[in-house]
Write a structure and sequence with these properties.
Blueprint lengths: L1 H17 L3 H52 L10
Length: 83
């Protein structure tokens, strides 16, 4: 009956190697949570940067309009001719 012992020892070895360390699983879960938090922070930073860019575009458009009006009132060609 060496075959059942061989099968039993192989199954036992397989079961022993299939067990996962709970500390490793906890570390992996913590890493995944930290990555999720980091991604959320990056998304928030991107949204803030996008809002700032939109605000700056509005300011530039206002200034461009103001310059265009002043140039029209003073009869100055705008935009200036390129050389």
């Amino acid at each position: 009956m060496p075959i059942p012992r061989l099968l039993l020892s192989a199954a036992l070895a397989l079961a022993a190697t299939a067990c996962v360390n709970p500390r490793a699983q906890a570390n992996m879960a913590q890493s995944v949570l930290e990555m999720g938090t980091a991604i959320q922070n990056m998304q928030q930073d991107l949204a803030d940067a996008s809002a700032r860019i939109d605000s700056l575009r509005a300011v530039v458009a206002y200034q461009d309009t103001l310059i265009d009006r002043l140039a029209t009132l003073t009869n100055v060609p705008w935009p200036p001719p390129r050389r």
